[in-house]
Write a structure and sequence with these properties.
single chain, Heat Shock Protein 90, 2 domains, 7 strands
Length: 345
């Protein structure tokens, strides 16, 4: 369960329980003197109307604070009004309370006693207000964070999609120049790729089988373009084809492998790509040859820095989409560049 969903659920539970909490508090206030004097001779001497009168004034000051004063941003500015209302409330209570019984102590004692009582209720209701407000702020913060992450993901997708399409168009163009008989098939695969990118990439998740088919089409297009330069070994072993994954998540690493390999001298360079899904755990491996010297000789240093958009975007998307459930290792061993990725889907 996401953090946002947990906080929303907690807030909704609190909102549902809060009215009962208020009812419980006032019932306990009303019943307290009767419980306190239960079992004593004569019981509680004051009438029920006396207690209702006291309850009314306690509720009045409590809810003025709860609904009007506590939500105010500038509490200090409104403090004089609160003090005026508090004094008026105490004086009115004293006036009506005399109707029920004669005060044995002076007005000042009663005034201070009631003041402390109302302050106590203010503290209780401020605690309730603070808990509720804290939940609301957390929900609002998590919503903003989610919106920010979604905006970042959309921006990252926008970086990945044109990058991929640019590469595939280059492939078609190269084959068209050679008047290759496979050009119609490549155009069909390009059409499928366009459809996938335009349709599926708008989804949060896609079936793993669709993502793998998209990868197969991309590899086929690149193999046609680099038929003499690369030998691609691709394997996939999926135990649940309907398992979902974020779209265009792996293609950036594969694009990167072809970019590295395409600038190497010679022919017959091996690219090994392996995808396994076992018990909702995805394992992805991509290996390709690598040579700093070839990159320097061809004068591609600056271009190379700009060409890693897909790979960098993929790393950022992994951090946003699977922050605690993925392990990514990118390393260079000798003349090999290796990407190892595990995701708990």
């Amino acid at each position: 369960m996401s953090v946002l969903k947990e906080i929303k659920n907690a807030y909704q539970r609190f909102v549902k329980v809060e009215p009962f909490l208020h009812i419980f508090i006032w019932c306990m206030v009303l019943a307290y003197p009767y419980i306190k004097y239960a079992g004593r001779e004569g019981g509680y001497m004051m009438s029920f109307l006396h207690e209702l009168n006291a309850l009314f004034f306690k509720m009045t000051i409590s809810y003025v604070l709860y609904f009007w004063y506590f939500p105010k941003k500038n509490k200090l500015k409104n403090m004089p009004l609160v003090l005026v209302f508090l004094i008026l409330n105490i004086m009115l209570y004293e006036y009506f309370d005399i109707m029920f019984h004669e005060h044995k102590s002076g007005f000042l004692v009663h005034f201070l006693t009631n003041l402390l009582t109302y302050i106590s209720f203010g503290v209780v209701f401020y605690t309730i207000y603070a808990i509720k407000t804290n939940y609301k702020k957390q929900v609002a913060f998590e919503n903003l964070l989610k919106e920010k992450q979604q905006a970042e993901l959309n921006a990252l997708k926008a970086q990945v999609n044109p990058h991929f399409l640019f590469n595939t168009l280059n492939t078609i163009y190269a084959n068209a120049l050679r008047k290759d008989d496979n050009t119609p098939e490549l155009l069909l695969k390009l059409s499928d790729s366009f459809r996938y990118v335009l349709d599926k990439s708008q989804n949060d998740l896609v079936a793993i089988k669709d993502e793998i088919q998209h990868i197969r089409d991309y590899i086929h297009l690149q193999q046609e373009r680099l038929s003499e330069k690369v030998n691609v070994s691709f394997s996939s072993e999926i135990d649940h084809e309907k398992q979902e994954i974020a779209p265009l998540l792996l293609i950036g690493f594969i694009e990167n492998a072809f970019k590295y390999t395409s600038i190497l001298k010679g022919t017959g360079h091996n690219i090994n790509i392996d995808i396994k899904l076992n018990n909702n755990n995805l394992y992805f491996t991509c290996e390709n040859p690598y040579s700093d010297s070839d990159k320097t000789v061809l004068g591609l240093d600056e271009t190379w820095k700009k060409s890693g958009v897909g790979m960098k975007s993929t790393q950022k998307r992994l951090q946003l989409l699977y922050p605690e459930t993925h392990e990514l290792i990118i390393k260079q061993e000798g003349q090999k560049f290796i990407v190892l990725l595990k995701i708990e889907l």
